[in-house]
Amino acid sequence: MLPIPNPNSQKSLVESYLHALHALMLRDMRTRFGASLWGYGVVVLWPCVHIFMLIAIYTFQKLAAPLGDNRALFFATGAVPVLVFQYISREVMKAVVMNRPLTYYPQVKLFDVIFARILVEIVTGFLALLVVATVLLCIGSNPVPFNPFQAMCAYLSAIILGIGIGTINVAIIGFFPGWMIGYALISILLYVSSGVMFLPSFLPDKIYYWMKYNPVLQLAEWMRSVYYPYAGIEIDSLYIILCALTSITIGLLLVKHVVTKMTA
Q: Where are the domains of the chain?
């Protein structure tokens, strides 16, 4: 007779994994942000400070928003998806560098370290989004999009693309440790060319055509098109989703080979 699987043992395995994942998340938060909530609060508020610094610069220079008459809403709609992508793609890579000694324990796998950091960054990004929306409400701006479903799709696409590029970075840094500096430089280029501070559709068609191949730019435009439907911003949502799913597939396959290399 075949042995009957014990549901209690399967439940204990799941509980053990969840406890290990919870411990990794707590360790991640305590080592990066300190043992108090104030340290974590600073990290949550940092993207908000970034957005409102842009608003302050344009306000002091008395420059009008490139689109609409609300500077805060214009910068927030472009910066939120771009920053969500950048933080996840960068921090996932840094998690492996900082927590690699933990993988010497048999209970901790490299994927567990990556997954724990992804969860922390998703929660942090969502809390930052709530803070930005609250501040926008307090200053008289309306953070509610015309199409909430499309806004949610753009935000989730930014998360998935960040996870995909982040896992690819994990694989690259496993072979080339100096890639962390290289990706920092690439992140600056991506940010500058993503259209957070300007409207790419106002550029000449020949330049705008090639810039559209940057999925991060299209993420910013996707979110902006939800808040400014009259602007006529054209996006290729299928292209963004395919880039996100392709990157996460490639990243997970590469991480699998990195795990094999590290544990061999």
A: 15-263
Distance (Å, whole) CA 33 – CA 255 = 27
Structure tokens at 159: 């998360």
pTM (2 d.p.): 0.85
Phi, psi of 108 (to 5 degrees): -110, 125
Handedness of CA 148, 92, 50, 211 (dihedral sign): negative
pLDDT digits (tens, 9 = 90+) for 188-199: 888 888 888 888
Residue with tokens 């991480």: 255
Judged on CB neighbours under 10 Å (0-12, 13-18, 19+), 69 is: exposed
Which tens digits make up the pLDDT trace of 221-257?
999 989 888 878 888 889 999 999 999 999 888 887 7
Q: Categorise residue 34: left if φ over 0, alpha if ψ from -120 to 50, beta otherwise.
A: left
